[in-house]
Amino acid sequence: GIGTGKALSIMAAFELGRRSEMEHPQFYPGIHSSEMAASILIPILRDLPHEECWLLHLNKSNKLISKERLSKGGLDATVVDIRLIIKNCMEKRSCHIVLAHNHPSGNCKPGASDKAMTEKLKKGAQMCDIELVDHIIVAGNEYFSFADEGLI
Q: In the chain, what percentage of residues exceed pLDDT 90?
């Protein structure tokens, strides 16, 4: 008894409700692989024309506490301050973290600065009893995982 327009409006309302629910961290399962982390990060980072760096805060069971954009940069670089990351982790009571950024160029291979930043964050986080679980580089629908490649 309803028209096409009204049916589409109702369907759209249900879809918006579903998406709103998924934005809340308690609906995410524990993150136990790079694939699970990438499934959260790729939709955020894949289509950006500039570099951004994000952090996933996880509790002791690797459940997502929050997602946080750390920085927004230019076409091929973004600045990340390790001290601010550690401060935010302490405030959010993170036990584990996943660092992520994108490469708008489409090449997901890490550069020397990516490797240096990962090592620096890993050491800084360890001093505060926080584990860097992974560093993921997103390039389109592809990703590179430092953990999968044995670089963490």
A: 66
